[in-house]
Specification:
By secondary structure, this protein is mainly alpha-helical. It is 62% helix and 4% strand. It has a three-stranded antiparallel beta sheet with strand order 1-3-2.
């Protein structure tokens, strides 16, 4: 998908939104592009999302922008504050700890189920995810590598075939991206794919116990990479961050 009026960006919105609903029409386009920018760390936690500025960038009216922002707020990627407007969500240290605790409880079970269900086509899909992670790292695109890493975990949910757990994991992965943007000591360490490679081997062998153990260890490693005493400063220039130029406003309201 190309950003409105600007450079090409790599997006995979169907991967992100397997377990979530999106608004229709132009609001969906705005929602997906803002979501991608957040999850790829181009839009930082705490960044202001002015309705007027977003509308000018994407060439849409306030109603469309509000619908997109409400959808992002529903998925907890955005917070909307009365009399202040919308901001990229900025999880507190307590929220960060709780989210990774939830991941450590849910995702090992997902990995176990996925190991029981995995087929050759699933293994190939996961290997493709890891290859894309490597490519992003080779280009020093840490934000994209982190987004791809999140998609790997979401893909496991699809293989597991558990829609309820999948919806939880979808939300937790998205919020984890915000946490990494704020609190990670060295973001590139979150993209190391050796854990993913080991998980693929366990799934290919249909070893549910090994997959569960590996996932537990992986989540612990991710959590240990957080430094909850520090917070990065947000980006502030929305158009520059999105890499787009304002386009002529449509009649969509």
């Amino acid at each position: 998908m190309s950003a409105a009026g600007g450079r090409q960006t790599r997006t995979h919105d169907t991967d992100y939104n397997t377990h979530t609903s999106l608004p229709a029409g132009r609001a969906r386009d705005v929602c997906v592009q803002l979501q991608d920018a957040i999850l790829q760390h181009r839009l930082r936690p705490g960044s202001k999302l002015s309705e007027d500025e977003v509308g000018e960038i994407f060439g849409v009216g306030r109603t469309v922008v509000r619908t997109a922002l409400q959808a992002l707020a529903h998925s907890q990627l955005v917070t909307i504050e009365r009399h202040r407007g919308a901001f990229v969500a900025s999880p507190s240290p307590q929220e960060a700890a709780e989210i990774f605790e939830a991941r450590s409880l849910i995702e090992p079970r997902v990995a176990s189920l996925a190991a029981n269900n995995a087929r050759d086509a699933d293994i190939n899909r996961l290997k493709a995810h890891v290859a894309e992670e490597h490519a992003a790292l080779a280009e020093n695109d840490i934000g994209m590598a982190l987004a791809l890493s999140g998609r790997f975990h979401i893909a496991l949910c699809d293989i597991a075939g558990h829609e309820v757990l999948g919806a939880f994991v979808q939300s937790l992965i998205s919020r984890s991206s915000l946490i990494i943007a704020l609190y990670w000591r060295h973001r590139e360490t979150a993209c190391e794919s050796h854990s993913h490679a080991a998980l693929i081997e366990a799934l290919a062998a249909h070893d549910a116990a090994a997959a569960e153990t590996l996932m537990k260890s992986h989540i612990v490693d991710l959590h240990s990479g957080l430094d909850l005493s520090r917070r990065d400063e947000p980006e502030t220039v929305l158009a520059d961050v999105l890499g787009v130029k304002p386009v002529a406003r449509s009649h969509a309201r």
